[in-house]
Fold Class I SAM-dependent methyltransferase.
Amino acid sequence: MLTHDAALEWIARWDRQQEGYLPDREERFTALIDAVEALGRPDPLVIDLGCGPGSLSARLLERLPQARVICVDADPLLLGLGRAAYPHLTFVSADLRTSGWTSLLGLERPADAAVSTTALHWISGPELKGVYSELASVLRPGGLLLNGDHMDTEDATPALSRLEHAVHERETARAFGANPPEDWRAWWEAIEADPSLSALNEERSTAGADHHGSESHLLSHHVEALEEAGFTEVGTLWQRGNNRLLCAVR
């Protein structure tokens, strides 16, 4: 059985391995939650896209305890960790690439914001357009999409793109030197070896939830898809190297 404490330990370990790729991850979380708070509602309705085990949503509720956060992911194991660790969050199993995913969310009114961090790059460009179009249908006018991820500009500004990568690489080297945290693959190998997670691991294997590659790593992929979906303004709200917080206004 997966206990509450064990789930929290696995998520803390998840956070550490994520920070190995994003030494300023907490700063990006803070900027994103600042933007949600700036909407002016103490009780915003927020959708977390590709939520993983709920790291972002948990932080959002710490700042805005009256918020309602609906966490969406297709990975059974990450959802299982989140449900065990954060019973006050609502977790929904859904594949964002499948039309109709918003009908599973149980929305009683249009959402004020949708948030995501280090998740939507797994979705291909054509599928991303469908995701953003469906999202636009459940966001209120003036609502926000806030997407934090590595987004490259090599197709438009290759020299700047190289500099952005260099800034990120130097920041990572300063933060960790020769002792980087556990990486993505090592974390998953440890998860797969834990007997208390055998049922969730089997469910994950059956669901085919593993990711391979980055399908929409360009900033232009997201900007074009958001504009096509009818978002009125799209721009970078926060940035460190090629690590961005992209904001789109419905």
In short: Residues 114 and 168 are 26 Å apart (CA to CA).
